[in-house]
Amino acid sequence: TGRGRPALSEPEGLRIPIPNAGELTLRHLDLDVNGTIAADGWLLVGVADAIEELKPYLEVTLLTSDTFGTAASIGEHLGVQVHALPSDRPGGPAKADFVRRLGAEGVVAMGNGANDVEMLGAAALGIAVLGLEGCSPGALAAAHIVASSASDALALLLNPRRLSATLRP
Length: 169
Fold this sequence. Notes:
By secondary structure, the chain is an alpha/beta fold. It has helices at residues 47-54, 71-78, 91-102, 117-122, 137-142, 150-158, 160-167; strands at residues 14-18, 22-26, 28-32, 38-39, 42-43, 59-64, 81-84, 107-111, 125-129, 145-147. It has a six-stranded parallel beta sheet with strand order 7-6-3-8-9-10, sandwiched between helices. A hairpin with a 2-residue loop joins β4 and β5. The protein is globular and about 45 Å long.
């Protein structure tokens, strides 16, 4: 399909061949909200369109402690699930547990903060986003790939040849 995009193959999701390393078969996209796809509680430009393009391939979930109280409206706008983290557990373990419950081998996760480190490490593909809030050193170290913005990170999934080139050994 166009621009090196994967063929839609339900229920297999997004298949990304990695030369000399096999293939990633992704079914879920787990997104941190603030600092990753939103800044100061507001959805970043270009994110909604990219997510809409990915929804036929991936089940999208927002994972958040909802610092700015806008996650529900962002989720509604995007037409995706919002998973609010329990207040009695810090985000790191709760996000990683969510990834594991989905089947980590089929998850791509994106985040930027210290509370995203475990999630990025647990996912089959962890993408750290170096956005307006910056990115924690732990998230950089845990990720398989670093992107300069949420739009760039989502574009990697829409153009899997970029991922293949970056991830091949």
